[in-house]
Amino acid sequence: MFFSCTFSIRFDPKTEKPIPVSSAYLVQQLKVIGRDFGIMCVVMSILAPYGWELFETGHEVNSFDHSLLDMFSWQHLANNLFATSKSIAFLKFMQILYHIILTLHTFMHEY
């Protein structure tokens, strides 16, 4: 297998051949995927029963009638923190999964 990123394969500047990826690195990336998937599942399991709004803010979730004071209330900020945590975990999960698939694809075509 060879080390690659989402844009291109990394090459050794001396030999100009793809840099092999270590199995330890691959295992580490799989652990990160597992962690991020776990975070996503936990946050989604907590938020879904509450309609994605864990703390009541007094306004509809998709409304635009918030005052500036409402925007900076702890309930609104906490709801945004949970939603952002889910989004970040999902994006990292997908990025690393794509990275691993690209690495495996490169490996399959090399041998």
Describe the protein's architecture and organization.
Helix content is 59%, strand content 0%. The mean pLDDT is 78. The longest helix has 37 residues, at 74-110. The protein contains three helices and no strands. The chain has helices spanning 23-47, 68-71, 74-110. By secondary structure, it is mostly helical.
Task: Let me know the number of strands.
Answer: 0
Structural class given helices, strands, pairing?
mainly alpha
Shape: elongated
Order of helices and strands: HHH
Radius of gyration: 20 Å
Number of helices: 3
Distance between the termini: 9 Å
Helix percentage:
55-70%
Major beta sheet, specifics?
none
In terms of DSSP E residues, the strand content is: under 5%
Give a quick set of tags describing it.
single chain, about 110 residues, mainly alpha, 3 helices
Note the topology.
Elements: H1 23-47, H2 68-71, H3 74-110
Structure at a glance:
The chain is mostly helical. It is built from three helices and no strands.
